[in-house]
Task: structure prediction
Amino acid sequence: MSVIVGVQFRSKGKEIWFNALTNEILKKDDAVLVDMGEYTDLGFVKIEPKDVDLSKFKIELKNIVKKATSTDLEKYEKLLIKEKNSWSQVMEKIKKHNLNMKLVEIKCVFDNSRIIISYTSDDRVDFRELVRDLAGTFKTRVELRQIGSRDEAKFCGGYGCCGQELCCRKFLNDYKQITIKMAKTQNLSLNPNKINGVCGKLMCCLQYEYETYKELSENMPSLETVVETKDGEGVVKYQDILQQKVIVELSDTKETKEYKTEEIQFNKKS
Result:
């Protein structure tokens, strides 16, 4: 068994698990220095130490270096100020090189080994000259990372139509494929204003209940299916998947009536 803790960076997104190799006692909200492989960064403990079997993790966890000192925290605060002050300089350089880029985040890592600049763009950007220019300005290594609109929403934050904080900001750590079929299966309006998130992509929450709707719909006739009811033959015009009911237009009278799925006969889906 090993001890791990959940660490969050810049108060964004889901916690990342790290090996708590330090002998220091770590509590929630403690600042810690962590080994990110190529550099050292500072984050905050959001999930207190747990004993786990590391074989359950598909990837090798990185390590906590140590608990941050007051000096480390002072340095961190200065880096945050540096990031804020660097914004106008980076924007100026982007404009100078006439690049179609939208600046999303500037991150100065704790050990000062690099500055990571995240951006979005509809085009493939040749930023080699920009990188050289920025490296000369900041006197350190500069990394530019093109991210997608979902990552931008995670960086910037916001609230969805449900009134809750964006899932990608609050707890999602990765993005599963979301398809229009998920919305159709749940009988949702296909109006983009209804099913798209603030990122402009299909809302991540469409996946949450999809499997339940999919399973329940397998026991129901599809729309426009011919069925037999106690009132005669008809065609399914509407499904209420959760209540397992359908509205049928009767062939003889053109009248519409509601039936429970168990009350009608139809060819089961193969």
Residues 70-96 form the longest helix (27 residues). The CA atoms of residues 182 and 211 lie 9 Å apart. The chain has a mean pLDDT of 90.
